[in-house]
Amino acid sequence: MKISQVVSSIALAAIVTTGVSFIAPIQVNSAVLDIKDFSQGNLGTVYINPYNVAPLTAIINRAGKNIEKIHVRVIAKKGGVDVSYSVSRGALLNHDGIPVFGLYSDYTNKVEVTYLYMGKKQKEIYKIQTAPIAGVVRDGRFGSFPNRVVKKVAKGFENRLYFINHTLESVHRPLQWLGGSGAAQWNDYTENFIVDTKGEIRWYLDYKQFYDRTERNVDKGGMVMGIHQLDNGDIAFTQAQKYFRYDLMGKKVFERKLPFGYIDSSHETLTMDNGHMLLRVAKYHYKLPNGKTVNTVRDHIIEVDETGKVVEEWSLPKIFGKNQMRKNLIMALDARAVCLNVDMNAHEIEVKDDLPYGDITSTGAGRNWAHVNSMEYDKQDDSIILSLRHQGIVKITRDKKIKWIMASAEGWSKEFKAKILKPIDSNGKSIICEDNGNTCPGYINEKGGFDWTWTQHTAWLSKRGTNTGYIKTLSVFDNGDGRGMEQPAMKSDKYSRAVEYVIDEKNMTIKQTWEFGKQRGFDWYSAVTSNVEYDAKKKTYHTTSANVNLLTPKNTKAVVLEIDPKTNEIKFEMDVVTLDKAGITYRTLVIDPEIFKY
User: Fold this and answer.
1) 276 is an active site residue
2) pTM above 0.85?
3) If you placed Cys at 221, which of 104, 187, 291, 559 could pair as Cys (CB 3.0 to 4.6 Å)?
4) Mean of pLDDT values over 192-217
């Protein structure tokens, strides 16, 4: 049948069924039915939010052209900051066009694109209109995303980008009411977004693509956490029963369920050089020595290969044995801050044998005795470094042996006390405090000295120092709850620190080499979450005290900083202020804008 006959048939059907007629040409060329490729320039159509995950991204289709030496500049608003980057051939082919990242929301963006085509340099301006930000709507919540208040931007730091991993408490938690435990019951919205140094949002993750608002689908519950940017620009993260890898255009690399037998992934993911990933999980149906079967809480590490198969497991209840009953720090914690509990009338933490199993802070497998919140891999000796909020920092070899412990000596068995690092000063002399030098509950003087970390987060190897042989440089966020195994008389006496240590694994010593935060006192105190990480490009420590004001009637805020560790000069500072009391920031990180050069 000719196309003219097809059109005539359609016209006749319309007349018969609706009574409305239209006139069609006698002969219609089939080309008029082709999709037209409208373009603003010499390339193809602009596709906004191409993968339905990152609304402030777009692709300028290359229209089949072999273009080279591509550069993109998202032109700033008046008084704003450009986002600019180069685009490799691989990135061009991967998206079949030019990836555009860093758009403003609810705005007609001007994007300058330069490239070579057939040996000639081309320069074009594309206008890309974006929609308003689609934030979370819930009872008592007005507006989308926390407020950003930039306080300082030093010269040379104007073009920095910061990723904010923020959580908003859900109003409906059926898994909690049904007695669920671990990461499953922490079933909250997460707002993940990138801001520039003006506080403008330039990218965000559409939470609806990952989160079931009805909270009936366990596989789409939990919090998006443990976000890291990989060397090729991708981001990896976890969310309760799944783990993910995406690029920042929103293109999925993979989305996988946890392997059988493991549940409740949260807090941390770590991608290794060989493509394997370390996941902090819990064990489903773990058998206790007394014969009972429980689900454990935040105390197992698994290594999965690039296909998702488990190749190794670290079972901390087995590795620690009777030491998982160490209760000293747990009993010293502020009950209001444990597991993000902000109930100002919370009771003291109880530790006794007849407590129920589940996500309660107490001792022993089946309870929240360890609370692993960060992981690091040391390829020098094939070991992992873990931050256990309720115990300390430990290094564990692949054959499941404790190599060293970074914590005060109270409560450990004789076997584990022998693994505790010995503090030394800058001259290499032992720091004698208490318990034969193993317990140092505070500073030698107000200007600095040595202290352990307390309820710490992000114990990561630092590129600022040496990490070869038996010398290791570690940066840690020292939250400071339970400091010295006690609560101060006044809560305003609490403080947090970003701190750096050098560890000599041969001589089993530890030396404090840098710290920031004590002098800021309670105004920079964060009882939970937070992070610190060295940035080799700028030679700064990026750190965030993520929940300042958590234990006060005020809304919480994350204080985001970049600091020169040589002088402690602040190069960038921004407050991320929650819109309601229930807001909690987990971590932040510096994002490299050159994400499409691979």
Assistant:
1) no
2) yes
3) 187
4) 90
